[in-house]
Amino acid sequence: MEHSLGSNVSQHARRGRWRQRLWWSLWSLLVVLGLALGLWQWERGEEKRDYLARLSSAPTLTAPSEMPPEGSRLTLSGEYLVDRTLFLDNRTHDGRLGVAPLTPLRGDDGRIWLVQRGFLETGTSRADPAVATPQGRVTLRGRWQAAGEGAPLFGPNHEGARLQRIQLDAWALDFAHPGWLHLEEGPGALPAWWTPSVMPPSRHVGYAVQWWGLALAALVVMIIGGRRMRRDGLPVEDSK
After folding, report:
1. pTM, two decimal places
2. Which terminus of the chain is more solvent-facing, meaning fewer CB atoms within 10 Å of its CB: N or C?
3. If we measure between CA atoms, which residue out of 239, 166, 190, 227 comes closest to residue 20?
């Protein structure tokens, strides 16, 4: 009888210790996760702040021969390659659905630049869009964006005249530099939908503070709950 009672007490103690280890492990994981996500958001805010600073200090250039810095204000002169226009799909502007016409420009020196011309409303129609494009020599001004990896694709990028994301190889042209001009002034300009930065740095900082606050709350719960579990387990261990 005493042996059975002692065995039950020992099993109960082991279960109590296992529950405590599980408790500390799970809440420690939540604390670490909150700290890591807060740090990531803080770093994103710093990166965004640096990016906006680079934009504000970016130079104004005219058809540069070297790769322009991100956000440079460029002036380009030449002729649109009218029949090479493609359309960046699924753009929105003032609550409307549409596309962004992407038209190559052959510069005065023969080099080719890609121009993102703005927003063209299409609604929900999936027919290939059409846009009027000026003929003859034009002078354009806008912001430069360097090509990057872009968002992941789910399916083909090129569907008819539409692109899911900008990829220069869709044109099979030798562009002057890997990137494109977001047109702000000049013939062929449409209402602007693109902005250099969607989320301000302060938003990232706010998210970081929230994550760190959750990590602190998880730490408090972990400590209080762990002490309570240990205290509740003492009478059982003392009775052995």
Report:
1. 0.71
2. N
3. 227
